[in-house]
Specification:
Aspartate Aminotransferase, domain 2; four-stranded antiparallel sheet; Aspartate Aminotransferase, domain 1; globular; alpha/beta; 39% helix; 398 residues; seven-stranded mixed sheet; 14% strand; 2 domains
């Protein structure tokens, strides 16, 4: 009998009871705005900032309205101006070039390797074209960060890390988001903590932190933030830094705090599911598993594999056959964007030069979410379905 998977790929776990209780307390108080506090109470947002700073090992953490807002704020805080060029990955999602475009800067795309990380040779070749790299750890794939930082340090490039998919991940034990000057994270529903929308910016730099806080809309109430640079730093920046409001509110912070405490355990659960699917796919004819280096601490909340050099018709047939059996796969090789699977040549607001080697890889990338609502048995079944359908289509081609 042909197996059909019955799970939902967009169904997330419920918010923890502790978070629901904290959210109800905030709602009953009516004080949702982060600066709407009584007396000396810190409030949920400031407490969350302190806890996230401690978790990442950063001096400063700022809770904001979204991961995209965090990236745009990071660019503004380091002084990126209209017309400036910013290096970034060719393999990423639209909010990354969108953040660059939002400050009227110009993305310069860097290629992708078969390991789905930024192409360090291409980065070195383009290092003289920009002073900033917005590094996207796309789908939780982390490159050799020591090598990347050596290239960027030698060229005087400031690194901002997009860690939307790597909250809880690391390279050689050093947390994602803590290699460059600024780390940006997302708490959108499909990320590693869920507040619907939300995000963080972390840094050790006093002036970057002060500018980011003012940019987020502090209304000169910056002393109430959870992690605060010295007052004299604010005196230098507060009158020439605009308010581009994007604060997190107490309601979202309340539901995030218990999730942060459980984050490491959640990451272990994702990785267990990832390994079951990975093991089930390994050895499938025509399918390349993306092997993860030992130096990388992953968070396997999604999995990618490559159907390199397949025809568009054959890949589309795999996606259809898997969908008919309940398995939802996304493909980065389509001529038109579908859902979130746009790529560098889709963003017409951002000029680009063709990259044939990267185009070949992008045409082969198949992507799948792994929500924690799936059991290990679910993951094994999903792998069997993908393996069977890929194998059938591959055999028909050969």
């Amino acid at each position: 009998m042909t197996e059909v998977f019955k799970g939902e790929f967009t169904q997330q776990e419920p918010i923890p009871d502790e978070g629901i209780e904290a959210a109800l307390k905030v709602l009953k108080s009516g004080r949702l705005h982060r600066y709407n506090l009584v007396g000396g109470e810190p409030g949920e947002v400031s407490l969350l900032e302190r806890e996230f700073a401690a978790y990442t090992g950063a001096r400063y953490a700022l809770a904001v309205a979204s991961g995209g807002y965090a990236m745009a704020t990071a660019l503004r805080a380091i002084g990126v101006r209209p017309g400036d060029k910013v290096l970034t990955n060719a393999f990423t999602l639209a909010p990354v070039p969108g953040a660059i475009a939002s400050v009227c800067a110009v993305p310069v795309f860097v290629g992708v390797t078969e390991d789905l990380t930024i192409d360090l040779e291409d980065l070195a070749a383009k290092a003289d074209q920009a002073d900033v790299l917005m590094l996207s750890h796309m789908r939780s794939h982390i490159c050799d960060m020591e090598c990347l930082m050596a290239i960027c340090d030698a060229a005087g490039i400031t690194v901002i890390e997009d860690c939307a998919h790597t909250m809880g991940a690391a390279w050689k034990g050093h947390a994602s988001g803590r290699w460059g000057k600024i780390g940006c994270y997302s708490t959108q529903t499909y990320k590693h903590m869920n507040s619907g929308e939300g995000g963080f910016l972390v840094t050790d730099d006093d002036e970057v932190a002060a500018r980011a806080i003012v940019l987020s809309g502090s209304y000169m109430l910056y002393g109430r933030n959870g992690t605060v640079p010295p007052a004299e730093v604010f005196e230098r920046v507060k009158y020439d830094t605009p308010n581009v409001s994007g604060r997190m509110d107490h309601l979202r912070a309340a539901i995030l705090r218990p999730q942060l405490r459980a984050l490491d355990a959640q990451c272990e659960k994702w990785n267990a599911r990832y390994r079951v699917v990975e093991d089930g796919l390994r050895g499938t004819p025509g399918l390349r598993v993306v092997e993860r280096p030992a130096a990388e601490t992953i968070v396997g909340s999604s999995i990618q594999f490559l159907l390199l050099d397949w025809t568009e018709a054959a890949v589309s047939e795999v996606l259809k056959r898997c969908f008919d059996r309940g398995v939802e796969l996304k493909w980065f090789g389509g001529a038109e964007p579908s859902g979130f699977t746009s790529r560098y040549d889709s963003w017409r607001y951002a000029p680009s030069v063709r990259m044939p080697a990267s185009d070949r890889i992008l045409r082969g990338i198949v992507d799948m979410r792994l929500p924690l609502t799936f059991s290990l048995e679910d993951c094994a079944q999903i792998a069997r379905i993908i393996r069977g359908e890929v194998g059938a289509v591959f055999q028909a081609q050969t």
